[in-house]
Each structure stands twice: as structure tokens, then as C-alpha cells.
Write the C-alpha cells for this entry.
Amino acid sequence: MKWSQFFNTSIGKKLLVGATGLFLCSFVIVHLAGNLALLKNDGGEAFNVYAAFMSHNALIQFIAWGLKIVILVHAILALQLTFRNRAARPVKYAVNPGNQTSSWFSRQMAIMGSILLIFIIIHLKDFWYRMHYGELEPVSYGGEELKNMYLAVQVAFRELWIVIIYVIGMIGLSFHLVHGFKSAFQTFGLNHVKYNGLINFVGVWIFGILIPLGFAIIPVVIYFKSIQ
Amino acid sequence: MEHYNMNLTLKVWRQKNTNAQGQFESYQVPGVSSEMSFLEMFDVLNERLINEGKEPVAFDHDCREGICGACSMHINGRAHGPWAGTTTCQLHMRAFKDGDTITVEPWRSGSFPVVKDLTVDRGAFDRIIEAGGYVSVNTGNAQDANNILVPKDDADAAFAAAACIGCGACVAACKNSSAMLFVSAKVSQLALLPQGQPEKKSRALNMIAQMDKEGFGSCTNTGACEAECPKEISLTNIARLNREYIAAGLTYEK
Amino acid sequence: MLDSKIPAGSLDKKWEDYKGHCKLVNPANKRNMEVIIVGTGLAGASAAASLGELGYKVKAFCFQDSPRRAHSIAAQGGINAAKNYQNDGDSVFRLFYDTVKGGDYRAREANVHRLAEVSGNIIDQCVAQGVPFAREYGGLLSNRSFGGTQVQRTFYAAGQTGQQLLLGAYSALERQVALGNVTMYNRHEMLEVVTIDGKARGIIARDLITGKLERHFGHAVLLCTGGYGNVFYLSTNAMGSNVTAAWKATRKGAFFGNPCYTQIHPTCIPVSGDHQSKLTLMSESLRNDGRIWVPKKQNDNRKPADIPEEERDYYLERRYPAFGNLVPRDVASRAAKERCDAGYGVGSSKQAVYLDYAAAIERYGKIEANKRQMHNASAAEITKLGKEVVAEKYGNLFDMYAKITGENPYELPMRIYPAVHYTMGGLWVDYELMTSITGLYALGEANFSDHGANRLGASALMQGLADGYFVIPYTLGNYLADDIRTKAIPTDHPAFAEAEKNVQDTINQLMNIKGTKSVDHFHKKLGKIMWDKCGMARNEQGLKEAIVEIQQLRAEFWKDVRIPGDANEFNPELEKAGRVADFLELGELMCVDALNRRESCGGHFREESQTEDGEAKRDDDNFSYVAAWEYKGPSQFELHKEPLEFVECKPTQRSYK
């Protein structure tokens, strides 16, 4: 079987969606770890150093571009599958079972994913684009001049509507991962009574709750600090 | 159990044939006994429609004991109705109460075109089996049955998968109208047994290819199929199908 | 005139000799030979698969939406085979002997012996196909005992053996479909046999979706269309099970063998009301542990729990101390009917007896408590443990009972009553399974077969698969070898045109009646006549009345039936009407046969022929024959007798006292 055939079936595409999804899961951990520097009371030094490192290290740059491709692949294939799934039932039911037979978030992957995608575009435009191509005030630490991304973040999150967008984005992430993380394991055929509990726990508590909460708390904290 | 009578309103999908436009029609059905099966309630309705000179509602049914897989009604949003692990024919009217309105629809899937009213064409399932749901052994080829040892746990798991009745409730219940539970049940049965090993790669790949060709949606692991399966086929079978696909796809030379 | 073509030689060599000497068709010729198979149950699917593998061009037909739905799928208990895996003394001879005896000495010895010989091959074949039979911890196949035999020879897959075997045959069939050797016609109903120069050469089938009539040619035609228990309206058969194919063949000249032999199964869930559409069987295995009783007082309306032990009549244990609750099916059924007719029945309909697990729960509970070293277990603990054991053994049956009745069988005794289950009678066939029409074969339950007057449990699956996998591939070749020069006959042949016209006329006639009563109305009435007068017990007067009543009902049907809709579309009412029209003719023949057979044997109990204590009395001097009936016109049937000879199995009167 050729690789092109392997990845072109419904399961093959799902494998790609699952694999890219899990890769993105690992990314959010790293991303969150860096972001938490925003909450450090050091006037932004740790964060700015981190941001500079992320935007200049060649390897990181390479991975970062890969990341965007991964997001695109994940989104495009998932949307492709979603449209196919919709088309598989041309006449809809008049009465649907609601939550009687499946969980609400498991049915909303496409919606939550789309919210996330829109959020990511906004987020990239807000920060990534400005960091790389935009004008940012300089700040210098020990003689080295860096872009003051920290300040840009602080300014952005003084706006309530931006904070709300970020919180909504993280709610989308939460629901997406509560189902998405364990769903990926099922797609890879990893379903075993001995490990399902662990997978479920990690999916719900770490990726579904802890990480989105960690992301969401940053703009909220910054906002409340700013209005004090 | 005390039995009781009830008056019901039925909203039933009526469609003259595959190409016709369908619509719901409402029927009052008085005096339904709680001891009737759901299909017997339809018998009563049909008897009345015939006496009134109208066309009875067409629906698939045969054994009426939950094993042939013919019956296929989507009842109040649920494939085979509200009881778990139950086919439409084994659903009894005790599940409803006086004054209820019950909406009955056919299985909805592009791969299961409506034939008439509540009857659909599930030929896609036969074609998926044709693609590989068998062991290639001609009559008379077999060795003595006890020469093949099968661990009891494997035999039990294979049986649990083989219990699939091919009713299509998994497709009907899935928001994507995916046939993965059906396909995985057959692939699992044979993957768990030594007899299925020689053809395991081509079987998984060919059955999946046929499933895709029939236009079924893909699985998003919502679990609705397992919840609605009258034979309670487990989602672990879908995981096994995925494993079989990966193993076959990564190593199959053809 | 009736030549059963039983090969000469000793019984255990007949089939071997036949296989060694029958004619063969060479592979190149097989490709040009077309075979039509009607019905895709165990017999039909296995035959279609096997003949397809051999290279014949097979066309298979079923009225269901898929061949996998044939009613073989509903068989619960198991399949017998003389494997002697349990080392408990089983052998081909013993399986043969048990089957002939169980059939009350009304089966053909040679056929039954062949059945026993190939029984082992069936298990091998099914296992090779991946049928997940129950296994022991060592990985070997598990067996259980069944239906009162003294050895453990029944292979099973939980309570779904028929399903697993059928799906095995179905997948073999679908494999041949994929290879192009078999063409499958789903939702097609055969409505006529086409004969040319005295040979079956095809069928007329109706496409049930479009209503279109189709002509199909075959060098031979195989009917694998199951039994006709639905003549009783209420039975354990599927709603669509019918006699139409076999009956059309009968009208075309095939003889119908032993139509009165019907099996009434003792453990079914009783009728709950007029709305009842079918009856549900619960495996015979329930009688292994359950005790059957009725109150000693007539019309006792107390709840079962309120009836003290000394006021209960365990009538099977009382009447048959040696076998008790494990007497054969026919005996158990009649005893239940006797009690209910005498006014001791229970439940709202009074047409039921209790099957009580209280004693078994207590017994198992005590054993389990002992195993667990609980020597001072309370009654409640014992009951709890006992229920767990019973749930493990019979849980799926108890669940099914609870679903249907809404009662908890762990707390209350189950109500059971006998129901029509299987028909031993069917198209008369010779040793090669050919009917009295050349080139027309009947396999499985559709033929009058190997079960005599009563079928033993776990033998139906065995026969269906034996016929399809291991008998017909040889016997059909023996016939077709002489037919290799016959080119496929074009279906514009006048015989096809005439057959199609007959079918079309019948359909037109049915559609044009435009009467006032539904098909079910007539079917229910027919069922009542049959059940009351040709059911578990028959007598001369009742049968004579029944014949007249059926004739009247038939006349009324053809005047007053109402079939809505159109003939040129999917029309289930029209399908039913055609089937009931045939049942209305068959029912009469069943009564004629029952009237003729003035003896009691197996499932056929003539009240005039019983011992002083009410047991069945066979009359070997006058009735040791197969009654093969020839259709001569409406209500006209001519009897042909095939004498039965017993060389190895000398008839004795059965006693279970």
C-alpha cells in the first residue's frame, strides 16, 4: 500500500488529524510554560528574554513554521472529514438524541476547533506578527536590546473585549481537548482497560482543564491588575 | 406487571419510494396496551389504515425476537428507541405513557436510501462483507476442528464482536453516519481468531476501502454507536480496527 | 412410482459408495451450468457458497433485504455432531440411532445415517470459517448436552448458535458473490417454478421493490426456503417465513411429504393478547434446572408465591418420574396443554404454566455457599448467591423474558406455554434431495427430511448445513453430469412466458378483489383453525371440521381480501396476501394428512390413538410410511406411500415413565 493511499482513507486522514492533534497538545504545554513568565513580577524581563529566544533561535523558527503547517493540516483534514460526515446524512433527523447517547463536547469538535482556529489567527496577528514584523518598543537588559513584547501584552489585555476573546478561545480549547486527547488515542487503536483511566484523566484534567485555565488566567490577571 | 392502556400520537415518516419527497404524518392510536411490542402497535395502526382504505406504513421486520437485524426505526431521536441493548421489535409499549407523542423516522444515511416509509436499503453492509468479511476456506478444506486451539478469552471476545446483527443502528445513531462499529465488529471477530490471520491485512484494508466508497462518514469517537447498539458491541472493536488498519497499511506490500 | 434412490449396501457404506460412484461434472462444464437457489438460510447459503466454489454459476434469491437475515439466525441452542470430543461414548451410529428414535421411527434410515456421518465435517468447516463456538480454558471446543440425549455432543455459541452458523455461511456466500460465482438477488420472492420437458428449468421471481416479475433460467433449481410453521399464524417463526416456494412446487407436481408433522416447543412465552404477532421461544435448556407446575386447584387466581408447596402440582414429575421435567418436547407440550384445558392454567389468559427457578436458585445458592465456606449463610445470602449462578447460566434468557413480559423471573416463576416451532414435513425428496420434479431439489427444513415425526434439539442446524455443504455438491453433480449438453435456455421460451403469465394473473386477481378484510384477518382465522384442530392434539371430527372451515375461509379470502397500494411497487401487504393464499391451501393438506394418519407419532398426536394413561400410541403395522401427497387440483390430493424400513434401528414404543 502506497503512503498516499494509506493517508487518503477516512482512517488514514483521522490518523493524521490525531497525530497532528497530539503534537499540538505537546506544543500547548511548552507555550503555557513560557507564557507563565508573564505572571512573574520582574517587569517582563523573563518573558521578553523568552520571547526573543523563541523568535531568533533557528531551530525554534524551523519548528514554529512546522507548527503552523501542522495546524493547517490538522484543520484542513478535520474540516474535510467534517464536510464529508455532514454529506453522509443528506436528510437530517427531525428528532435528535441530544446528550442521551454521546457527550456534548464530543459532538462539537468541529465548532470548537473552528473557534480555536479563529482564535489562533487573531492571536498570531496580535502577538506573533507584531513580534516578528511589527514595531515594538525596545527594552534593554544588561545592554542587550530586545523587543518589549511584555509591554505589548500588558497593553492588549487592558482591553476587556480582547480578554473575553482569549477566554472564549480557551473555552474552545478546553472542550476541544476534553474529547480530542482521548479520541486521538482511540484513533491510534490505543484502547485498553488498564490505561483508559489514565488517558481519560490526562485528557480531561490536564488538557481539558488545567492548561486552558492556565492560559486563560493570564489575560484575566493582567486585566484585573490594570484596572486596580 | 400491571398492564395499562394508553392513547398515543404517532408522527411517522411517509415516503412513497426512494425518489419521492417524504413528509411526516400524524396518527392517533388509541387503546394501546402496555404489553404490546412496538411493532405490534404498528400492526394495529396498519390494520386500521387498511380498513380505512389507506396505505399501511412499510417497515422492515422479520424475526421479531431481536436477532435478524431487520427492524430499524428511529424512535424519538433514538435508534431502536429508548431501551438500551434492545431492537425495535423487542421494545415494548411499557416504555411509553398515556398521551405521549412518538416520532418515528427511518435510519437516516446517504448510504441507506429510503425504500419506502421506514424501510431502507442496507445493501452497503453486504458489499462491505463482500470486500473481505470472511475466511477464504472452501467447503471440505477444513482440518479437524480441535486442531485449532483458541484461547477462551479470545473466543469470547470474538463471539462478542460476532454478535453484530447488521441492523445499521450504529450508522443511524452516529452523527457522522459512520459504519465503523459494524466494520470493526467483523474485522475484530476474525482478527481475534487464528483462522483470520492469513488474510488480516487485506481484509482490514479492503473493508475500509469499501466502507469509504459507500459514502459512510468517518468516526469521531463520540460513542453513540456503542450506546445504541442492540447487541452492545464495544468501542474497543473500533480501536482494534484502527490497529489492524495501521499494522496492515504500514506493512502491506501490495 | 416413489423411488427414494437409496443406494444398496450396508447402511454405513451407502454414502461412501455413493460419493465414490456418482457422476462428476468437469470444471470447464461447471462454468456453463447455472443453478438457482431460493432461500439463503443455513441450507441455501451453504449450498450457494459450496456450489459457487465448485464453479457453478449460481443465482441466489432471498425475500429479505440481505441473505444474513434468514430465520436460521434465530436458532438458539446448538448444533449436534458425532465428534465424541468428550469421550463419553458418542459415535456416528449413536447420533444416527438417537435421531431415528427421537423422530419416533418415521424417518428414512439412510438419510439419517448420512446426516450423522457428515455432522463432524460441519463443525470442522464452521470452525475454519471463524465461527466463534464456545471453548474450554484449554482452547478446545466446548460441548453441552441437549434434548435428553445421554452424551454431550452439542456445539454452541452462547444462545446464538444459529446466528453464528448463518453468518459463517453468509460470509462464505458473500465471498462467492465477490468472486462473481454467485449473483445475489435480495428482496426477490420466487413465485413459480418453470418446468420444460418435465424438468425444472427456472423460476419466476418478483422484485419486491419494483414489483416487476423476472424470469430466471437454471439447469437446476434448489428450494431452501425453510418451514411452514406460520400456517398457525402464531409461531416462533419469523414474520416472513412462508411456504410459498414449496407450495408452488407442490402445485407444479412435487410431492409434499408428511405435512402434518409439526413440532410444538414447550418453553415459549405465552400469548399476552389479541395483538400478539409472534411467539418467542426460550431455549429448551431452561428445563434443565426449572421445575414446571400448576396449582392443584382449578382456576386458582392467587399469586404464585401465595400458593403453598403442597398445593402445587409438578405434573411432569408426577406423570413421568423417570424423566421428570426433561421429557422430550412433544410430551412436555401435550402435558401443558392437558393441564390448561382441564382448567389449571395460570396467568390472565389461563393458557400458561409456571416454570419455577426458586428451587434451583436455592440449590445453587447452597452449593455456592459451601464452595465459599459460608456454613451459616442466611436464607437471603443463599438466594443471592443462587441468583448469581442462575444469571450466569441463563442470564440472557431471563433478560429476554423480563423485556417481553415486564416481570422479573428471578423473583416470580416464568409463565410458559407451547408454541409452533418447526415443521418436520416438507417437500418429499429422494436420497439425492431431488423432489419428484426432475431437477428440482429441496434442502433443509423445506424438505420432509431426516427428522421423522419429531425433531431432536440441535438437529435442525445440523441438517441444514449437511444438505448445503456436504450433500448437494455431490448429488447435484450426479444430475448435472447428464445435462452438460443443455445450453442455457433463453427466457423467452413459451414455458417461461406461460409461468410468468400465471403469476401475473394471480397478482392481478389478488389486487382486483378489493374486498373489506385485511390479509392478517384471514391469516389469524386460519391460524386459529389450525391451532385448535390440527395443533398439539388432533381428532377425526376436528380435522374434518377444519377442512371444511379452511375451504370456506379460502373462498372468503378470494372474495373479500383487501390489498392496498399497487402491484408495481414495494407492497408488503401484497407479499403477505400471496403467502397467506398458499397457507390456505397447505393448511387443508395438513389436515388431510393428519386425518389420514390415524396413529400418534412424534409431534402428531391423534386422540384416538393413545394408551390408557393418555400417552401417544404409534401404529407401525399400518403407518410406517412417508405420506407423500400429490396435488391434483383444489382440495384434491393423492396419497403416495413410501414404506419405511428399519434395518439397524428396530422400532420400539417410547416411554418416559
Observations:
- The helical segments of chain B are 38-51, 123-130, 152-162, 169-173, 180-191, 200-213, 224-228, 236-251.
- The longest strand of chain B covers residues 23-33.
- Chain B has two domains: 5-116, 122-251.
